[in-house]
Specification:
Length: about 350
């Protein structure tokens, strides 16, 4: 195993140690149905942690190269998002094809001769199919499901035989909200939980197993935020501006600043940590624990607009995913000491009302 593959493998193991991502404990009721979650600052912090782990373990001498790889890994999440959305549309395309094909059978059933077009004319689906932004991104990433029709067929067969589809087709309702809710259910039950689809993505990218749930949450959020006034020329990512303030340029700056400044301040952070861990040898503390503390230190001292409480809460929550119970308590204790000491030394300077709490 060469050094680069070894590092990638170790990073994958690091992510699989996350409670939410462990294959044996993966709980879609907890992960996929948390509707307030989308690709955001916590996931960006985790991606920076991943990139820092690779940087320090791999001995990469050039920060610029590591930064480029970090941005590529983030773009891969968005590619996965568009892949999942396009796969949803492909399943419905197959559904329509089979519906029309059934009419030409020698002995079609009355239901096959006069099928319900409710799903094929689902308003939200039609908006997505006509959306120019989605079409452009599909082209950008060269997305095609032509060679994966067996997988599409399996999802179609499960959908076609489901009580969910029957209930939807026979509900007697015809509203945008019903279309929206059914599409959410369809994606959750038949696509987000598809073992075949997850395996397909695992084979295509070492990171996509880790990001599958994040992209799925993003797709569900997209469906949830769609509205009847969404037009074919509207951007899909603009949907999220309706729900919360979101600035892609600010996010990109946050990611790169956090990554670069954590590296630049690494030696100083080592000294700060060493001074407060007299009973510990620094080289015996887990690398992930050290990196989480260094990232938190960087935010505390170099990001004046992020409240201390937010930084503390974020890294303690991330430590619950990537550290042992003992490590989590260690990180919490060290950060508490650092905040008290650095505040007294006026090395933590926050601008804005209430940011010190």
């Amino acid at each position: 195993m060469n050094a680069k593959i070894k590092i990638l493998f170790e990073i994958k193991i690091l992510f699989l140690n996350s409670v939410d991502l462990q294959p044996q404990t993966r709980n879609f009721n907890l992960v996929l149905f948390h509707t307030s979650v989308m690709l955001g600052r916590r996931h960006y912090r985790i991606k920076v942690l991943q990139a820092l782990y690779a940087y320090f373990q791999g001995g990469e001498a050039r920060i610029e190269v590591a930064e480029k790889n970090l941005l590529i890994s983030l773009d891969k999440v968005y590619e996965l998002y568009y892949l999942q959305l396009s796969f949803l549309l492909e399943v419905i395309h197959f559904y329509r094809f089979r519906m029309e094909e059934s009419k030409t059978k020698f002995y079609p059933t009355p239901e096959e001769v006069n099928p319900s077009y409710k799903l094929s004319e689902n308003r939200v689906l039609m908006q997505l199919q006509q959306n120019r932004d989605l079409a452009a991104q599909t082209g950008k990433y060269k997305i095609s499901w032509t060679e994966e029709q067996d997988m599409v067929r399996k999802i179609y067969q499960k959908l076609k035989a489901s009580k969910d589809l029957a209930d939807y087709l026979n509900s007697g309702l015809n509203t945008y909200r019903e279309d929206q809710e059914f599409l959410e259910k369809l994606f959750r039950k038949f696509i987000a939980k598809s073992a075949d689809l997850q395996y397909y993505f695992e084979e295509r990218s070492i990171y996509w197993d880790d990001d599958f749930e994040v992209a799925a949450i993003f797709v569900l959020k997209t469906i949830k935020l769609m509205s009847e006034d969404f037009r074919e020329g509207d951007s899909l990512t603009a949907l999220f501006n309706r729900d919360q303030e979101d600035n892609p340029e600010e996010d990109r700056k946050f990611i790169l600043d956090l990554f670069r400044k954590t590296i630049i301040n690494s030696e100083e952070s080592d000294k700060l940590i060493d001074d407060r861990t007299r009973n510990w040898e620094l080289d015996r503390i887990a690398l992930t624990d050290i990196l989480l503390i260094k990232m938190a230190l960087t935010e505390l001292t170099a990001f004046s607009q992020i409240p201390v409480k937010v930084t503390m809460n974020e890294y303690i929550e991330i430590s619950k995913q990537f550290s042992s119970q003992k490590s989590k308590l260690f990180i919490n204790g060290i950060l508490d000491k650092l905040v008290l000491d650095l505040t007294a030394e006026k090395k933590i300077r926050k601008t804005g009302r209430g940011l010190m709490t």
